[in-house]
Automatic annotation (TrEMBL):
The lineage of its organism: Bacteria, Bacillati, Actinomycetota, Actinomycetes, Micrococcales. This is Nicotinamidase-related amidase. The keyword Hydrolase applies. Residues 16-180 form the Isochorismatase-like domain. It comes from the Bacteria. It holds the Pfam family Isochorismatase. Keywords: Hydrolase. Transmembrane segments: none annotated. It comes from Brachybacterium sacelli. Gene3D superfamilies: Isochorismatase-like.
């Protein structure tokens, strides 16, 4: 964890903030998938997005469009409340997330959001050195899978621990521990630690 999470300087040196799935299905207390930690994480996400700006912030959404002939069919059978059209209000962004990014949302039917869309948006390639700050929900599912796939692809990833919302304290701790096993590609920082570099005193 000696490598700085972010580097001050020109835009090319600034990281991308990837806000994973800030959607009603994970935030509304009435939802079966609501994270009790979402309100606290949301405040820190807003602070990070404010300092990085909409051009350097990306927002993802998980949509229920996977092929039901695959194991996803069993998944949706286990969670029938989520087996609704992607236009259902459950899958809308929470109001605070709607203006965070100047870019269209990155919509995927998979837990992990790293893929051709996200790679293209940040300009990932053989000679690029993308740096990501990852926040969002849930720490133990879509954040975890996004982070590990991005690290595998060669991105340098900082997980903003207290800007992530887990399904439970135990699951969140387990996910953070798992991600901590992948330095130097992945490091873990608090929002205050990241902001101290973004906004040096």
């Amino acid at each position: 964890m000696d490598t700085p999470a972010v580097r001050p300087g020109g835009d090319a040196d600034r990281p991308w903030l990837v806000v994973v799935d800030p959607q009603r299905i994970f935030a509304d207390p009435a939802s079966e998938w609501a994270s009790p930690f979402f309100p606290a994480a949301r405040g820190r996400i807003l602070m990070l997005a404010h300092h990085l700006g909409p051009e350097r912030t990306l927002v993802t959404r998980w949509l229920p469009t996977a092929d039901r002939a695959t194991a996803w069919g069993e998944y949706f059978a286990a969670w029938p409340f989520a087996d609704v059209p992607p236009t259902d209000p459950l899958y809308e962004l929470v109001p605070e997330a709607r203006g965070l990014s100047a870019h269209p949302t990155i919509d995927e039917p998979t837990f992990g959001k790293w893929g051709p869309q996200l790679a293209a948006r940040i300009g990932a390639g053989p000679r690029s050195r993308p740096r990501l700050l990852v926040a969002g929900v849930s720490t133990d599912c879509c954040v975890l899978t996004t982070v590990l796939a991005a690290a595998d692809a060669g991105a340098r990833v900082t997980v903003v621990t207290d800007a992530c919302a887990a399904s439970s304290s135990a699951n969140g701790a387990a996910a953070l521990h798992t991600m901590s096993l992948f330095p130097p590609q992945v490091d873990l920082r608090s929002a205050d630690e990241v902001l101290a570099v973004l906004v040096p005193s």
